[in-house]
Amino acid sequence: MIHIILTSALQIPQGSMKISNFNHRIHETKKSLTAWNKVKNCEIHCLDNTDANLTSFSKTFERVSFTHVPGGPYSNNALGEFTTIKSFFTDGKQLGENDIILKVNARYFVANINVILEDIYANPEVDCWCHLRSNLKFADTRVIAGSKNFWETFAELNFNFNNPKFYFEHAMATHVLRRVSNGHNWRNFFHSPVIVGTSGSTGKKYSWLTQNALRPLYYRVYNWAMR
After folding, report:
1. What are the pLDDT digits (tens) for 85-110?
2. CA 195 vs CA 59, 86, 200, 209: distances in Å
3. Alpha carbon distance, N-terminus to C-terminus of the chain
4. 100 with 187: CB under 8 angstroms?
5. How far apart, in whole angstroms, are the C-alpha atoms of residue 160 and residue 26?
6. Cβ of 201: how many Cβ atoms within 10 Å?
7. What is the Cα–Cα distance from 27 to 146, expressed in whole angstroms?
8. What is the distance between the alpha carbons of residues 160 and 174, in angstroms, rounded to a whole number?
9. Which residues make Cβ contacts (< 8 Å) with residue 168, sequence separation at least 6?
10. Ordered structural domains, the chain, with CATH
11. Mean pLDDT of 64-73
12. Is 15 left (phi over 0), alpha (psi -120 to 50) or beta?
């Protein structure tokens, strides 16, 4: 079974990101959840690490289970993301040993999610699916998948998120490379995730041309070079 974790930080300090307005973040998340609610062959969980009230969400999106992560440090994006992931494995979730967890930002939908799920189901030997860049020091954590053991061991690690130059993406890249050095199988996604939504960092919508033409071409070249 594949579990999709949608990590959310709806209520963040004003001005802490390009998109920090609560109503804007609510609107973006509802648009995303409307699409996720239609995805089959997986279980979908939305975890929010702020004080936002998710009651109305749970009544609207019946395919999605909602969890409030208490005490989420939403003022620190990296630590908040890590705390959210960690909570998924400490609140009694029943997961099978062969289950896969795919993490996506809750404000994003992945337009080609079905083909990505097909790739994951067809390659059970892969321990982690993600794109690494910047000399393998930075993992694209907007969309990343891994085995149950991959995520459990990640949640047990300690990182210095007080360092403003150390991001969640750096922590994830470090973990991926450690897993590879221990003999686990890492793959870049065969198909570039087509992300629908607005970047919280830049405040700009992801472009159709980049998502559907340029990034797929880049992925093909990257995957060929990494063979």
Report:
1. 888 887 656 788 899 999 999 999 99
2. 26, 24, 13, 12
3. 28
4. no
5. 30
6. 10
7. 29
8. 12
9. 77, 78, 81, 82, 141, 161
10. 2-225 (3.90.550)
11. 71
12. left
Q: Nearest 5 degrees, angle CA 18-CA 4-CA 47? A: 55
**Rounded Cα gap, residues 23 and 19, in angstroms:** 10
- Whole-angstrom distance, CA of residue 142 vs CA of residue 204: 15
Alpha carbon distance 20, 218 (integer Å): 31
Q: What is the dihedral of CA 64, 197, 14, 85, to 10 degrees?
A: 40
Say which residues have a Cβ less than 8 Å from residue 30's Cβ, sequence separation at least 6. 57, 60
Q: pLDDT tens across 143-192, in order? A: 999 999 999 999 988 888 888 889 999 999 999 999 999 999 999 999 98
Question: What span, in angstroms and rounded, lies between the C-alpha atoms of 187 and 227?
Answer: 10
Summarize pLDDT for 114-124 with one digit per residue, the tens: 999 999 999 99
pTM of the complete model: 0.85
Q: CA–CA separation, 52 vs 22, rounded Å?
A: 9
> What is the structure's pLDDT at 50?
78
H helices present in the chain, as ranges: 22-36, 55-60, 77-88, 113-122, 148-155, 168-181, 208-209, 215-225
Closest CA to 35 of 204, 194, 213, 146: 194
The answer to whether 52 and 74 have CB atoms below 8 angstroms apart is: no
